[in-house]
Automatic annotation (TrEMBL):
Chain ranges of the Deacetylase sirtuin-type domain: 22-339
Main location: mitochondrion
Name of the protein described by the UniProt record: Deacetylase sirtuin-type domain-containing protein
PROSITE patterns per record: SIRTUIN (PS50305)
Gene Ontology molecular function terms on file: histone deacetylase activity, NAD-dependent; NAD+ binding
Subcellular compartments: Mitochondrion
A GO CC term assigned to this protein in UniProt: mitochondrion
PANTHER family with a match to the protein in the record: NAD-DEPENDENT PROTEIN DEACYLASE SIRTUIN-5, MITOCHONDRIAL-RELATED
Keywords, comma-separated and alphabetical: Mitochondrion, NAD, Transferase, Transit peptide
Superkingdom per UniProt: Eukaryota
Record family assignment: Belongs to the sirtuin family. Class I subfamily.
Entries under InterPro entries matching the protein: DHS-like_NAD/FAD-binding_dom (IPR029035), NAD-dep_sirtuin_deacylases (IPR050134), Sirtuin (IPR003000), Sirtuin_cat_small_dom_sf (IPR026591), Ssirtuin_cat_dom (IPR026590)
Region Disordered, residue ranges: 200-221
């Protein structure tokens, strides 16, 4: 006898992508609400460069998947660490010089409202674990904004899990022993060793004539003589009297692979999640796409809110809202926070308007998501 089984309907029905993208904001917010509710605190978050555009950080890729800045050639890992005069030239005279001038705007960037909303999902336990492809340190800053809003009588809970898949510009490490130090400290060392460049950088800050920067803190300089720029080796190696390791920003470059620890951690977070909420990313990098693909193959629901095409469009279980994540999150959070008075909710309520919108000076036309 053939047993006929009636498939159970998922509690959040899948809508065709066009229909989902055209929902009015309140219905889009309700759809997100059901998605998160059905996740029962095990919704995993994956975010990308599209989230940071409003903080003046330029997205790598625009609507059609091209680099937003056509003149930008990303630094390649093999160039940075090449152990030869050519590698040395790349490191000291080009990469670090550009990075030295390009870092202050990244250092000073503030989280925008969308960063705060995403941190709110984490702090409220709605989607506690978060994997980001962003290296701009704005997600940690957003969590700090909410944590600092907790009343002194009710200390903030421990920071929620945030994995920076491609590293962070807030740190550097040496290639010899992977000694880590803060980028701010290393920036100071660079400034001390290169007083003329430091004057140039200060002048740029004074006049607001900041160079164009890309999301990795790199800056595009043409016709500049890099030969005068000096790059210190690892301070920790030096203090221990060993060979000074080459210092590298703690970010994954194009052509470089993730460390096994980070890769494993990302796979663990994604596999422990019951569903994935993907925000502001085209998932163009394989390290992030792999997590979504794996969730799709395991039959997990996936909701993507991002403008433009993504690499995961059309995968099984993927729902797509082609719109900016921030507006949907804001509407959803307003609803969630209504009538809630616990310290967590109060702290989040107070933080919602602390995001700062600052567009990069030369963004034209529709804003890009990465
Ligand atoms: Zn070292």
């Amino acid at each position: 006898m053939v047993r006929i089984s009636i498939p159970t309907l998922p509690s959040t029905p899948l809508l065709p992508p066009t229909q989902l993208s055209l929902l009015p904001l309140n219905l889009a917010s309700q759809h997100l609400s059901r998605f998160i509710q059905d996740g029962k605190g095990k919704t995993g978050l994956i975010t990308g460069a599209g989230v940071s555009v409003d903080s003046g950080i330029r997205a790598y890729r625009g609507k059609e998947g091209h680099y937003s800045n056509p003149n930008y050639t990303p630094i390649l890992y093999h160039e940075l660490v090449e152990n030869s005069p050519r590698g040395e030239m790349f490191r000291s005279r080009i990469d670090w010089a550009r990075s030295f001038l390009g870092y202050p705007p990244v250092r000073d960037a503030r989280p925008n409202p969308t960063h705060i909303y995403i941190a709110a999902l984490q702090v409220l336990g709605l989607a506690p674990k978060h994997i980001t492809q962003n290296v701009d340190n704005l997600h940690p800053k957003a969590i700090s904004v909410i944590q600092s809003s907790f009343p002194s009588t009710f200390p903030a809970p421990p920071r929620p899990t945030l994995l920076e898949l491609h590293g962070t510009l807030a740190k550097v490490h040496c290639l010899e022993h992977r000694h880590e130090q803060s980028r701010d400290d290393y920036q100071q060392e660079l400034a001390d060793m290169n007083p003329v460049w430091n004057e140039e950088a200060k002048e740029a800050e004074r006049t607001g004539r900041r160079p164009r920067t890309n999301p990795d803190g790199d800056v595009d300089l043409r016709g500049v003589d890099y030969t005068s720029f000096r790059v210190p080796g690892c301070r920790i190696c030096r203090e221990r009297g060993g060979k000074e390791g080459i210092v590298k920003p703690n970010v994954v470059f194009f052509g470089e692979t993730l460390t096994p620890q980070v890769r494993d951690q990302s796979l663990t977070i994604a596999s422990e999640a019951s569903r994935l909420l993907v925000l502001g990313t085209s998932l163009a990098t394989y390290s992030a796409f792999r997590l979504v693909k794996q969730a799709s193959e395991s039959g997990k629901p996936i909701l993507i809110i991002s403008t433009g095409p993504t690499r995961a469009d059309g995968l099984k279980g993927v729902e797509k809202m082609d719109r900016r994540a921030g507006e949907v999150l804001r509407t959803y959070l307003n609803d969630v926070l209504k009538n809630q008075t616990t310290p967590e909710y109060q702290a989040v309520k107070e933080s919602l308007d602390k995001g700062v919108i600052k567009l990069p000076p030369d963004v034209e036309g529709p804003r890009a998501e990465g």
